[in-house]
Amino acid sequence: MERVRNLLEQIQSRLAELNKAERKVAEAILRSPQQATRFSIATLAQEAQVSEPTVNRFCRSFGVSGYPELKMQLAQSLASGAAYVSRAVEADDVPEAYTQKIFGSAIASLDSACRQLDPQKISRAVDLLIQARQINFFGLGASASVALDAQHKFFRFNLAVTAHADVLMQRMLASVAHTGDLFVIISYTGRTRELVEVARVARENGASVLSLTAANSPLAKTSTLSLDIPLPEDTDIYMPMTSRIIQLTVLDVLATGVTLRRGVDFQPHLRKIKESLNASRYPNEDDPG
């Protein structure tokens, strides 16, 4: 049962050791595992741009007799409730185990993302933010809440900032964009057609597009600048957990870059905003004053 339940994890973990042709089959399955369970062997071969014998060899390399059994085990893997939560979590984990796994996964993913981010790209992204006349943060699905968080951070810099999670509003704003506008588009996969189209329209109208997305994705290729976000989880299968944490942390990095670029003369403005909240809070009972 362990082998069946973890078929997707096995495919992901063995990508590097597969030959070029079999890796194409693995990537085709991982791109859309639910669709793969409905593919015929000919369809999967076409999707992966390989021959049908290559698909059969791929099946044998994972210890299954043929493509029908592979599809059955893939469907069973997807049906496991734990698989939709996190790659690390097993169906029989106790609270102590899954708590440690989720925290451990988040910490490891942040460390990996930090090592992979290009500091020169961070600097160029800060330049775009500093120079923008207006900034629009766009996100859909799980990334929508990240876009709203970005609006909360960046309005403090005396910039015209909005956040939108409605694709129709996103498209309308892109259609009336001008030079000097910046669209920050947040998408974990970078494969959402609507967001790629919005980026294209915005750029055609003279705006700049900064994306936080997967490297070499359609969105990254359409953007003025893309901050490549590593892919610690497959959000086609799992709940987007560490992906949002990485996105939020990258936005914190950019906000810090803008603050430092503004210099010490900007600090009184930030302090004024923070102090404006004092009257809305009950006093701290532990405060000796």
TrEMBL record:
Residues 125-264 form the SIS domain. Keywords: Coiled coil, DNA-binding, Repressor, Transcription, Transcription regulation. GO terms for molecular function: carbohydrate derivative binding; DNA binding; DNA-binding transcription factor activity. Gene3D superfamilies: Glucose-6-phosphate isomerase like protein, domain 1, Winged helix-like DNA-binding domain superfamily/Winged helix DNA-binding domain. Signal peptide: none annotated. GO terms for biological process: carbohydrate derivative metabolic process. InterPro entries: Homeodomain-like_sf, HTH_RpiR, RpiR-like, RpiR-like_SIS, SIS_dom, SIS_dom_sf, WH-like_DNA-bd_sf. Residues 5-81 form the HTH rpiR-type domain. Residues 1-31 form a coiled coil. PROSITE patterns: HTH_RPIR, SIS. The keyword Transcription applies. Involved in regulation of glucose metabolism. Transcriptional repressor of the gap-1 gene and of the edd-glk-gltR-2 and zwf-pgl-eda operons. Acts by binding directly to an inverted pseudopalindromic sequence in the promoter region. NCBIfam families: PRK11302.1. This is HTH-type transcriptional regulator HexR. The lineage of its organism: Bacteria, Pseudomonadati, Pseudomonadota, Gammaproteobacteria, Pseudomonadales.
